[in-house]
Amino acid sequence: MLQARAISKTYESAAGPVPVLEDVNLDLNLGDALSIMGPSGSGKSTLLQILGLLDPPTSGQLSFDGVEPWKLKEAEQARFRNTRIGFVFQDHCLLPQCTVLENVLTPTLVGERDDTVIDRAKELIERAGLTPRIDHFPAQLSGGEKQRVAIARALIRQPKLLLCDEPTGNLDEATAWQVLTLLAELQKEMRGILMIVTHSPAIAAEFPRQFTMRGRHLERTA
Ligand SMILES: Nc1ncnc2c1ncn2[C@@H]1O[C@H](COP(=O)(O)OP(=O)(O)O)[C@@H](O)[C@H]1O
Ligand SMILES: [Mg+2]
């Protein structure tokens, strides 16, 4: 389903090239769930950005759903990203002027959509336990609630790949577990690939497959 072959990434900076990833390989199938740990600056976000079609690799091949998405033209690539990939970041990145429902619907504002999308948004909001908050604005929500909205938004297009970059990094422990449980439940139903970057060994250990970024390489640790 998703294959990464010999992915490398070197950033060019004023001080010279900054090599971040070297020979990263991954083979994932629908339904896989994995965690990635590793020190700050080890390239975890860089890897997610490459897999999520946000920033190109310097070399290597990515194949996803039978397509090599980094070889697509920009417009096709944007469409591919929008329909197949969901993101949850450490910061919820909600639009402050939009309600919970509107935020969840934002990925459907571009590209095709059908009439079921509003029902689906309401269902996801229900699953996230936020139905009483559906017309509230982000400023009226707690950190955990905002992150649950971000998860509903990431899943509205039923992506085959859900990339979460330290999604619980700003939350207290109890809230972090609630958010994680919601992610795991919804992902299981969607049967996509769930990839989560975390600094918490306890959270990382919940996943069937565990990886660590070390010395520019992605090592499987469990
Ligand atoms: N756009 C960029 N330009 C130059 N260097 C970058 C850029 N983005 C990240 N880096 C560097 O790449 C390394 C890995 O960053 P990142 O992937 O964000 O690590 P992590 O998510 O594991 O903390 C860091 O040394 C960082 O400073
Ligand atoms: Mg990071």
Which residues sit in consecutive blocks of at least 5 with pLDDT less than 50?
none
Strand content: 25-35%
Biggest sheet overview: 6 strands, mixed
CATH architecture: 3-Layer(aba) Sandwich
| Domain module tally | 1
Could you walk me through the main structural features you see in this protein, from its secondary elements to its overall organization?
The chain has a 6-stranded mixed beta sheet with strand order 5-6-7-3-8-9. The protein has a 3-stranded antiparallel beta sheet with strand order 2-1-4, with helices on one face. The protein starts with a strand and ends with a strand. The chain is globular. It has a single domain (2-220), classed as Rossmann fold (3-Layer(aba) Sandwich). Helix content is 32%, strand content 27%. The chain contains 7 helices and 9 strands, in the order E-E-E-H-E-H-E-H-H-H-E-H-E-H-E-E. With 222 residues, the chain is α/β, with parallel strands linked by helices. 36% of the residues are buried. The longest helix is centred in the last third of the chain and has 18 residues, at 173-190. The structure holds adenosine-5'-diphosphate and magnesium ion.
